[in-house]
Amino acid sequence: MTAAVVTVAACLLLASCWLPDRFLAEVRLSRNGDYALVYQGDLVWVPLADDIRARKLTPAEITEKTDILIRDLSRDEAFKTIVALGGGRFKVSYERLGHLGARDIFAFPRRSDALISLETFDDGRAIIRARSLKTEDRDRIASAGLGMQGRFRVVSDGLPLKGNPMATAARGVGRFMIYDWTIATLASPPPFIEID
């Protein structure tokens, strides 16, 4: 099995090869379906970071792969800035406004690499969640010398049904409630909230 096949297989197991780190992410969702998602922080392409750490690539190959990843992310106009930091790490600024219908889904950065997803249902519920990592995926990412830290926030005027916000008491601003999570490690519980 070639290294490329192993990398692709590992990405399929991870469900996404992008890893968020050193980030602040905020989702705003109103009862009428309007939403905003803002992400400020790093995105790490795990296969590139792992190959660089293992010294499998020449400087020219690293530059080529980095340029390809920047072009790929740049296809989405919601990425306002993308700066390569080296080592497979990119500093990004992302802002998306949109509207979700009665049965709809939005994912950041895209459905095939859903780090954050917003999903609505016919019965009026909405679920906002961050991607969860299986133990073996966490171990694989940690062995590549990577970690994950950040803050995640949901602001909504919907009634919370269930979830796991870290803040013991949500704060209100007008009719909107604010729910916060702190991501300290790869093992931190992934943010999840269901809203009516």
Oligomer: single chain
Report the biggest beta sheet as strand number plus sense, adding barrel if it closes.
7 strands, mixed
Mean pLDDT across all residues, rounded?
A: 88
Count of distinct structural domains:
1
Give the SSE string. Answer: HEEHHEEEEEHEEEEE
Tell me the β content: over 45%
The end-to-end distance, rounded to whole angstroms, is: 48 Å
Which sequence of strands runs across the widest sheet? 3-4-2-1-8-11-10
Shape: globular
Radius of gyration in whole Å, from Cα? 17 Å
Q: Unreliable runs, pLDDT <50, ≥5 residues?
A: 1-15
Number of strands: 12
What can be said about this structure in brief?
The chain is α+β, with helices and mostly antiparallel strands.
What does this structure look like?
- The protein has 196 residues and is of the alpha+beta class.
- It has one domain.
- The protein has helices at residues 3-14, 46-53, 59-74, 135-143; strands at residues 18-29, 34-45, 79-86, 89-99, 104-110, 113-120, 126-130, 150-156, 160-163, 171-173, 176-183, 192-195.
- A 7-stranded mixed β-sheet has the order 3-4-2-1-8-11-10. A 5-stranded antiparallel β-sheet has the order 5-6-7-12-9, with no helix packed on it.
- β5 (104-110) and β6 form a beta hairpin.
- The longest helix has 16 residues, at 59-74.
- It is globular and about 55 Å long.
